[in-house]
């Protein structure tokens, strides 16, 4: 059970993006890869939110990253608990693809912060 980890670790990181759709939107239907968030809401862990899929060369647009973050904020109700990250390492991607993915991740994060009034 996840609750047994409280007080032992501060952060949990999850690969959400590789199970998610590439459609824009913040509904549960659009964010299928993020189902576990409802379970994590009751705990105090910081959540490493995987926002880009490291297994494909698909370059997530910043708007998709934004929507994934906004969905997480809506589920967790505390933006300070969210750590925006890729699903994992990008060593299997070319430098060009990795750079574009990370650049869009940062831009999407900034868009999400602006949307909730924290930018």
Any chance you could write out the topology, listing elements then pairs?
Elements: E1 11-14, H1 37-40, E2 46-50, H2 62-76, E3 82-85, H3 95-115
Parallel strand pairs: 1-2, 2-3
Written overview of the protein:
This protein is α/β, with parallel strands linked by helices and 119 residues long. Helices cover 34% and strands 11% of the residues. It has one domain (2-115). The protein contains 3 helices and 3 strands. It has a 3-stranded parallel sheet. The longest helix is centred in the C-terminal third of the chain and has 21 residues, at 95-115. It is globular.
Structural key phrases:
single chain, 119 residues, three-stranded parallel sheet, 3 strands, 34% helix, globular
């Amino acid at each position: 059970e996840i609750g047994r980890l409280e007080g032992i670790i501060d952060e949990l990181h999850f690969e959400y993006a590789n199970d998610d759709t590439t459609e824009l939107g913040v509904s549960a239907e659009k964010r299928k890869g993020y189902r576990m968030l409802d379970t994590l809401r009751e705990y105090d862990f910081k959540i490493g939110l995987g926002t880009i899929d490291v297994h494909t060369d698909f370059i997530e647009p910043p708007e998709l990253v934004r929507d994934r973050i906004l969905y997480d904020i809506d589920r967790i109700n505390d933006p300070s608990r969210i750590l925006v990250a890729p699903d994992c390492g990008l060593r299997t991607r070319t430098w060009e693809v990795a750079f574009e993915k990370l650049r869009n991740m940062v831009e999407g994060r900034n868009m999400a912060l602006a949307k909730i009034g924290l930018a």
